Structures are given as structure tokens and as C-alpha cells.
Amino acid sequence: MHLVLTGATGLVGSAVLHQMLVSPTVSKISILSRRPVTQAEGQPKAHVIIHKNYAEYPSQLLEQLKDVDGVVWAQGISSTQVSKPEYETITNTYPLAFAKALAKTTAPKPLNFIYVSGEGATTTPSFLTQHWARIKGMTEASLLSLSKESEYSNLRPISLRPAGVDPMYHEEVKAYIPQRTGLMGAFEKAALPVLRPLLPSMISPTRELGKVLVELACGDGAAHKEGESGVSGEGRTLNNVAMRRIAGI
Predict the structure, then answer these.
(1) What is the 3-state secondary structure (H, E, C) of 40-89?
(2) Coil, strand or helix: which one is 141?
(3) Record's InterPro entries (predicted)?
(4) Alpha-carbon gap, residue 115 to 79, rounded angstroms
């Protein structure tokens, strides 16, 4: 299968790329990135496409992706690192623009679009909801709505909400993942050692997270059974409990 990955130089993206590289189901990986991806160097089935503007996708780029089966959209940034308008552009505008462009390109072939959201995101925000959770939830809802439009009816979105993303036991990616700083770095150092034994349901081990994301991208695109633990959004939103259940942990 031919998969697309964004965010390959980030923590989640590095984990996903590792699982794509070792998966016998994945025959080709197209990586959209603003810069070279060290982890992909020397890997025959990985092709890095340097792309700067994620709001627009020229025909020359899309021509390379016309046989794509699935996408893992792992691109993202902490809301503490950018302004609110910038965060909305990165978190909402970019994935929606790509979903539209690629769905048109691959139609009528079904396109699995796996969006990496976050535990705490919500499609029913209140005045107390944090900005990041509101925007990620808005993107989840927008992808679902998009798939109901006739123009994009081949789109099969799934939004997955990881919790505390933990690379502790994923040695293969440690050389490639960025060092966390600021609030995220402090969280990783202080909270993860406590959560691992006490609240494992709030941990997303990168090895298992990456594997589940790749399996979803390679799957049949069907909605999950709403009512199962951790499943919402018409069966197309999976929280961390669902991710761990699918991973068997």
C-alpha cells in the first residue's frame, strides 16, 4: 500500500515512520516535509517530498500521490509555541486543505485519512475549553463533515486522540525525535514517570501508537462501533483508551 505521512520529524511522526518502514503491508511511503528527514535516508520505500506551503498542493505534487491508499496526518505544534491564528492554520487549515486536494486526486478510490488529534479535544466546547482542544475538535468535525459531501465521498477519516505520548521503550526512534522543551518538556520529565505505573490509560507508548496509526491507514476505512470504550464521533473518533485496546495493551 502507498501511504502519505506528514510530521515525520516530530515525536508521533517518527514513531509512525518507523512502523511504516517495518510494515510488510506498506510498499511505498511519501513523506511531505519542509526539510530532509534523516530517518528516511537510505530507505528504498520512503520518498521525501519537500513541501513548504501546506495550504496549497500543486498538480505536480498531487500527480505523485494519485495512487495513495491512506494518510497519517501527524503534523502539529504545541499551542504554546505559536499564536492562536497560527495554531488554527497549522491544526485545521492545513489538514483540511490536503484532505480535499488528495480526495479529489484519488477519487473514486477510498482514501483513509488518519488525523492525529489529542486527548482532551472536543467537538462540543464550552467557554472553559482550552483553545487547542477546541481547534482539534473542530478539525475532527470538519473532516467528518467533509466526507459526507458528494465531492469528497471517498474520504474515510479517523481521528485518534493520543494522551501522554511516551517514547521510553521505543529505542529505534530515540535518535530522531526532537528534544521536548518548555511545558511539554517539563511534562515529559515530571508526569510520565508517574503516569506509567499509576495511570497507564493516560499513556500512549510510541511503538504501539505508531502501529495503530499505520494499521488504521492501511485498513478498510470503516467506522468503529460507537458504544465501544473510547469510540465517538459516529465511530470515527478514537481516544487513548480505544487506541490502547486496539494495540492490545
Answers:
(1) HCCCCCEEEEECCCCCCCCHHHHHCCCCCCEEEECCCCCCCCCCHHHHHH
(2) helix
(3) NAD(P)-bd_dom_sf
(4) 17
C-alpha cell recorded at residue 170: 521505543
Residue 47, SS3 per DSSP: strand
Q: Cis peptide before 85, with omega less than 30 degrees from 0?
A: no
State how far the Cα of 177 lies from the Cα of 14, in Å rounded to an integer. 6
Q: Give the three cell numbers for residue 204.
A: 500512549
SS3 175: coil
Strand partners, 28: 2
Q: What does the chain come to in residues?
A: 249
The sign of the dihedral angle between the CA atoms of 211, 231, 187, 130 is positive
Measure the CA–CA gap between 182 and 70, rounded to whole angstroms. 33
- What is the grid cell recorded at 194? 508517574
pLDDT digits (tens, 9 = 90+) for 15-37: 999 999 999 999 999 999 999 99
The CATH T-level fold of domain 2-247 is: Rossmann fold (3.40.50)
Lowest average pLDDT, out of 34-38, 94-98, 167-171, 188-192, goes to: 188-192
* DSSP conformation class of 226: B
Alpha helices in 160-205 (DSSP H): 182-190, 192-198
